Amino acid sequence: MTPSAYDRLTERFRRLNALTGSRGVLGWDMATMMPDGGAEARAEQLEVLTMLGHGLLTAPEVSEWLAEAESAPPDDPWDTANLREMRRAHLHATCVDENLVGALSRATSRCEMRWRAARPDNDFQGLLPSLDEVLRLTREVAEHRAAVLGCSAYEALMDEYEPGAREETIDALFDDLAGWLPNTVDRIVEKQEQQESILPIPGPFPQAKQEALCRRLLGLVGFDFAHGRLDTSHHPFCGGVPDDVRITTRYREDDFVQSVMGVLHECGHALYERGLPAPWRSQPVGGARGMALHESQSLLIEMQACRSPEFISCLAPLVREAFDGDGPEWSEANLRRIYGHVQRSLIRVDADEVTYPAHVILRYRLERALIRGDLQLADLPGAWADGLDALLGIRPPDDRQGCLQDIHWPSGGWGYFPTYTLGALAAAQLFERACADRPDIPSELGRGDFRGLLGWLRTHVHQRASFTSTDEVLRDATGSALATTAFKAHVERRYLVR
Amino acid sequence: MTPSAYDRLTERFRRLNALTGSRGVLGWDMATMMPDGGAEARAEQLEVLTMLGHGLLTAPEVSEWLAEAESAPPDDPWDTANLREMRRAHLHATCVDENLVGALSRATSRCEMRWRAARPDNDFQGLLPSLDEVLRLTREVAEHRAAVLGCSAYEALMDEYEPGAREETIDALFDDLAGWLPNTVDRIVEKQEQQESILPIPGPFPQAKQEALCRRLLGLVGFDFAHGRLDTSHHPFCGGVPDDVRITTRYREDDFVQSVMGVLHECGHALYERGLPAPWRSQPVGGARGMALHESQSLLIEMQACRSPEFISCLAPLVREAFDGDGPEWSEANLRRIYGHVQRSLIRVDADEVTYPAHVILRYRLERALIRGDLQLADLPGAWADGLDALLGIRPPDDRQGCLQDIHWPSGGWGYFPTYTLGALAAAQLFERACADRPDIPSELGRGDFRGLLGWLRTHVHQRASFTSTDEVLRDATGSALATTAFKAHVERRYLVR
Predict the structure, then answer these.
(1) Could you tell me the pLDDT band of residue B399, with boundaries at 50, 70 and 90?
(2) ipTM, interface predicted TM-score of the complex
(3) Residue B252, SS3 per DSSP
(4) What is the pLDDT of residues B458-470, one digit of tens each?
(5) What does residue A164 show for φ and ψ, rounded to 5 degrees?
(6) Which CATH number covers residue B385?
(7) Domain final residue pick, B53, B71, B94
(8) Do A44 and B21 touch (CB under 8 A)?
């Protein structure tokens, strides 16, 4: 029997998925295991796998199969959704001229390298020419893609990370947050100033002990070591494939606070990947929905669950045991203060969950203005300082702590920033609903029992994969579209009520 | 300017090389890092990469480019040799019908699985049907390939591992060895019986200490950790790519003897890979010549250099230091007896360098007879016992210690066995010549200085890659074709003269 066009497509996407998975493992190896001398050969391997994948996806027969399959769509709704995701992947791969893609890729390589020198040197002027080239080509790509997708240029950029993201929706959410934030931060900082101050916990904390603690916590949260690993890398990440999820962290021997929460954050990403529906492993519909939901899962585990007072009551004795800690600085109350500290700061990656949205809203507004042409790159440092001032009441003393701090723009990641805060909002909304559906969750977390929460996430988020839009996942799970309500209520409850 | 047919071929083979390298790293990861739950996804990744590679190599345009390039060959002799190797790779990939290849692949998977159960159960009869199917299909493949290559069916099988291997040559070498072996083994065993007996070294030897010793030894021999790693796996191997060579070993806490020599053996393979000419990294002519030369490099490092009395005088104090050893069992003389012990034994992988060729010659004769149809599989156990008796004067008490011991035949590795002994002969011949060219080598090894030896190997073996045949590499390096002379002289010198 001749296979149908849709059958041919599923086989083609199975191969693409194997290529993507291979790249995932090779990328993980590059960050964790590879000796420096292997870099050139690895770059070539990754380049060739990417090129072959692009070729498989954009081959002429794929257009024909798609058209044929769409003319007589499959019956099963998951197959239908799969076909829709195939079309989406094909559209993204074909809507921009390959020469332009190549030019942008070369420009971002140059610019990222330039940025690595410019940031420590605080040299925004030195970065400007190469960043300008990246911006110019990114706008060109965005306009091509927007014409095909039928959206704005900036939306077309976001679409790669968060399918269907719309400026209007995000504006409403972010404007609301931006109006609420300054006063809220004031009140929290004021309240914290009146409370007992944080007692520093004296180190050192040997890496082996930190790692043992992290593994124990991963076990509690539900990370499956038969289908994953924990390793060390310079930048923490979650990689691999759903049946073999590789998470990493970094350790500082003078501080365990970051590594522990970093691992739990990555664990949230890993649980999402691991929970994607097994029968659809190799197909587009079986993949994670987008970066907003992905980030919602890491933030839900880290911010909502693991920084909750309930879980910290379970964490404190484990931490004491791990490092033979004794004394008031090791108390549950002190650990809660450490993990719940809020302060205005200049660096996004060091920000707490309350001030983090300010950093994201700033970048969202600036990058959109740059893409639209409403802001010139030369004016970025001033616009950055003014914007941060309006949101957090502070100004960076230099560009290193201002518009040079992130790798995203030099490396071509335009339209990515909003997903961090969309994820934080979704995390609060999902966690609120999970606790409403299953009121025992907080007390279960207090006993280190994540099974109830994980079960809820499996059903309402992970198993949905890319079957529907992010918005539909949220509506089905929580009864309403993404909103700021739950996040604001969470912040009030955690930082102001207690 | 339009690229020439040869340029197109080099680009095609660059991609193939990146795919092979990717598979190398994924295979290494599978054996060293991958959690069990990742097996299915990994098998799919490897299958797809293999399939894509096969597709790239057998695509119709490759035939056209080859014909066109051969009609006006490149000027540079390395390019000419590269084109020859491209043709060879293409021939091997296309000369057998894909359905037959698929059938053999499925049959070997089944048979290998069956063998894993049959060996511990000593159940040759149970293995017979699936092994018979493997043999039948292997013969069919061999006959197809032989017709294209213009050689015997068995030579066509060997050709995959050792290009150009001829039965006539191997017969001459192996018959000579077989005639010399029984009496030589008798004399060595008799001599050793008259010597002081081996003092067992009491353990345990913690894995971390064994590994630290192995790393120190690798550093001495010239393993470059900026371009490679040492890890642990169930079966030791050398994988990865030339710029990132991954070797593995296994540790037993009651014995360091095996792990140390195992690592040095794999290091010999790694040095060969690492020493291949950098400008030809991605091309067929830049690859290792074949398994005989590959094995010659591991055996040269392990057997010729590292088990030499000179190196053992350097090794003994390092071993004592590694394990805080003290007493007569830790002496240089005892270590020399341990690493130079010869005995008739049933299991190939445990055999010493003197009796090892008997195991190989036995298998060579048997597998050739099976391929030719001169021997029926049902008669294998008896033929095995008779053959071993003739060569070593011992008979296996059961098939588990006889014809069921090796994975090669069930897994489809017919024609591989001879390369072990061809490699041992080449190792002796190359080492003898290296020491003649550079008489300081033995005393350098006594000081743990491998630079002189490695430099000689780089020039005379590694840098030659696949530019010429194995035979020409040997002739150019040593002045004569592969012979038994150096090996026999080495055995006499090491085991009988002292």
Answers:
(1) very high
(2) 0.93
(3) strand
(4) 999 999 999 999 9
(5) 80, 5
(6) 1.10.1370.30
(7) B94
(8) yes
